[in-house]
C-alpha cells in the first residue's frame, strides 16, 4: 500500500512539474535569424522556441516573437507578445495557440492573447490577438482582438475588438467593439458599440452614446457624427447629416430629417435644426386662414424649444395684377412656443413663403414674415389660434405696391 501511494505521489509531482515548466518556459533569445520557410532557417526546426531581435525570411517566418525588426516575403507568425517593425508581403499575425482555443475555458482565453507594440505593415492583413500599441497598415484589413492605441489604416476594414484610442482610416468600414476615443473615417460605415468620443465621418455612423457639454454626466470630450445617416441611442454631442436619429437627445441634431424619441428638458436639453424634425411628441397640424384669402396647412415638428414647420397653402382670391394665375403657396418656418398655462400659448415664428408657386416651372416668389400667434382652448376642443404679423416682399420694393404689409390670421391647432 505504501509503495502504491509513493508511486502515485511521485507521478502527480512529476506531472505538475511538467505543467508548471511548460507554463513558465523561457524562450531562447536570438540576435538574428535568416531563413526561407519554417524549418529552413538558422533557428532550425524549433523556430517557435526563439525570440528574435532581427529576422529576415524569404517567404514565411514562424517564431515565438520578435523585438526589433522582422521581414518576410509572404507572411510572419509570432506566437507571443512582440514589438518593433513587422513587415510582410501578405500577412502579419501575432498570437499563437489559436488552434487550441477549444481546449480552454472562457476565462483562460485571455492568456492566449498576445500584444504588439510597434508597426505592422502587410500587403493584405494584419492581425493581433491582443492589444496593439502603434500602427497597423495594410491593403485589406487590420484587426486587433483587444484594443488599439494608435493608428489603423486599410483599404477595406479596420477592427478593434474592444476600444480605440487613436485613428481608424478605411476605404470601406471601421469597427470598435467597445468605445472609441479618437477619429473614425470611412466612405461607408463607422461603428462604435458603446461610447464615442471624437469624430465619426462616413455615409453611415453608428454609436450607442456620445458626450458633450449638454450631457447629464458633463464631459469636456465631445462626440461628433457627420454623414448621410447618423444613429445613436443617447446623443450628448452633435449629429450633422441628411438623417439623424437619437433615442435620447441632450446635444444637437443638424440635418434635413431629424428624429428623436425624447428631447431631455431638465436644464440640459437638446436642440434640433432641420427641415423635418420629429420628436418628443411635438408633431401637430395647423389650419390657418388669413384676411387676404390665403388658406394654408402647416405641419409642425421639433422639440419643446425649437419648432419647424412645412407650409402648403392656396389662395382663394385671384390676384388680377399677377403675371401668372397660380394660387399655390409653399413655405417653411421656425419658431418657439411659450406655455402660459395648460390652455394658453404664445408662438412667435419666422416664415419664408413662396406665393404664386408653380410646380411646372418651379417658379419661386419668396416673401418673409414675422408672426406671433396666441392660442387658447376650452374644454376638449383643439386650440383656437389668432395670429398677427408683418410681411416683407422684396419684389415690391421697386414697384408701386408696399413692400411691407400686415397679416392677420386665425385657425385651429391639433394640440
Protein traits:
415 residues, mainly beta, 23-stranded mixed beta sheet, eight-stranded antiparallel β-barrel, 1 helix, elongated
Question: What's the short story on this structure?
Answer:
The chain has 415 residues and is mainly β.
What is the overall number of helices? 1
The count of DSSP E runs of length 2 or more, i.e. the number of strands, is 32
> What general form does the structure show?
elongated
Percentage of residues assigned to helices: under 10%
Rg estimate, integer Å: 34 Å
Average pLDDT over all residues: 80
Helix vs. strand class: mainly beta
What are the low-pLDDT stretches, counting only 5+ consecutive residues below 50? 5-25, 97-104
Distance between the termini: 93 Å
Strand content: over 45%
Q: Sheet with the most strands?
A: 23 strands, mixed
Can you describe this structure?
The protein is mainly β. It is 5% helix and 59% strand. It has one helix and 32 strands. The protein has one helix spanning 2-23; strands spanning 28-37, 40-41, 50-57, 60-63, 65-72, 75-78, 82-88, 91-94, 116-122, 125-128, 132-138, 141-144, 148-154, 157-160, 164-170, 173-176, 180-185, 189-201, 204-210, 223-235, 238-249, 252-263, 271-279, 284-290, 294-302, 307-315, 328-335, 338-341, 344-357, 366-376, 383-392, 404-413. It has a 23-stranded mixed β-sheet that branches. Strands 24-25-26-27-29-30-31-32 form an eight-stranded antiparallel β-barrel. The longest helix is centred in the N-terminal third of the chain and has 22 residues, at 2-23. It is elongated. Mean pLDDT is 80; it is low at 5-25 and 97-104.
